[in-house]
Amino acid sequence: MINFNIPPFTGRELEYIEEAVKNRKLCGDGPFTKRCNRFLEELTGATKALLTTSCTHATEMAAMLCDVGPGDEVIMPSYTFVSTADAFVLRGARAVFVDIHPETMNMDERLVEQAITESTKAIVPVHYAGVCCEMDEINRIARKHRLMVVEDAAQAILSEYKGKAAGTLGDFGCYSFHETKNLSMGEGGALLIKDAKYVERAEIIREKGTNRSKFFRGEIDKYTWVDAGSSYLPSELNAAYLWAQLEIARQIIDDRMASWNYYREALRDLADDGRIELPFIPEGCRHNAHMFFIKARDLEERTALIRFLKENGIGAVFHYVPLHSSEAGVRLGRFSGEDRYTTRESERLVRLPLYYGMGNAVEQVSAAVHEFYSAAR
Ligand SMILES: *Cc1c(COP(=O)(O)O)cnc(C)c1O
């Protein structure tokens, strides 16, 4: 049996969790959380990085820091995970969906400007599969129309766009450390902040609307309720697990990249014959091997392929149901322009197993895909 995903485990997680337990410091912002924050700042060049309880929560924080509220509109792809929209509709905003580039499945930056109205507050590019959107153009549009840019960089830790870290390209960047992502803490994420003027309010929102962070730094002698906020601070136990991964983050990405490259070479002939399509990495993008997908001819062929792989003990999956056609999306959003690619391409896409330390499994999966396509169909 080859699983679709196995959460990363590097070997030192239990040691660090034990250390956190012995520190008698289990709530948030202890030594491990601080170490992770600092590591992320050094890795990315972000002014501030704050671990959060999830990427969804980091995006909620970004929505609050952008002062998104009822009546506002936020532009994003329809081809994304629900959290991208949730964080903003939770504040009363409307999601405005635009179509994607079929090669990368990223939001088509050429369609953003036509989606802008008087009510638009922010643009939310999603770096699908750890491949960055065309951020120069998105940032140009945002500056011109005075909009905020929140990167959903859930899948993009250690990815780069023109030499800069994903998550530092807009005003805010949101990472996920869910167990399905390259680096994990079970459930968790991080908010990256570019402009120092947002740091204090971010700390307050993350600490239930209190200035407790300032108190712990000794800047004030008691802490109090100063703003609306929530509880977005992960436990030290989760941060300890993450620290073991961050320590060897590059090694984890390199291992995944070896599998990613193997898939691409092994399946190239099927692509050359026009049977399938492979991922495309635009110039200037350095990806993090988060995902290897192929595209079948259509929904019917994809269903047959996933079934065939399953019969051969291989877990391959598809995603996403486009948000604009989902029950909530119909109510809470609208599609701007024409859905040329979102629905059609999402129905063709299959994600193959990819995880840290998958070893020879990548060869077995590639062979099974070949077998499927060599049978007369
Ligand atoms: C995983 C993911 C999220 C949500 O991350 P959580 O940490 O589970 O909240 C959001 N957006 C995208 C694109 C994702 O892949």
Could you characterize what this model shows?
With 377 residues, the protein is of the alpha/beta class. The chain folds into two domains: 13-246, Aspartate Aminotransferase, domain 2 (3-Layer(aba) Sandwich), CATH 3.40.640.10; 249-375, Aspartate Aminotransferase, domain 1, CATH 3.90.1150.10. The protein is built from 13 helices and 13 strands. It has helices at 13-22, 31-44, 55-65, 82-89, 135-145, 199-206, 212-216, 236-246, 249-272, 299-311, 327-332, 342-346, 361-374, and strands at residues 48-52, 73-77, 94-98, 120-123, 148-152, 160-161, 164-165, 172-176, 189-193, 285-286, 292-295, 333-335, 349-352. The strands form three sheets. An eight-stranded mixed sheet has the order 1-9-8-5-4-2-3-12, sandwiched between helices. A three-stranded antiparallel sheet has the order 7-6-10, with no helix packed on it. A two-stranded antiparallel ribbon has the order 11-13. α4 (82-89) links the parallel β2 (73-77) and β3. The longest helix has 24 residues, at 249-272. The chain is globular and about 75 Å long. The two termini are 25 Å apart. 50% of the residues are buried. It binds pyridoxal-5'-phosphate.
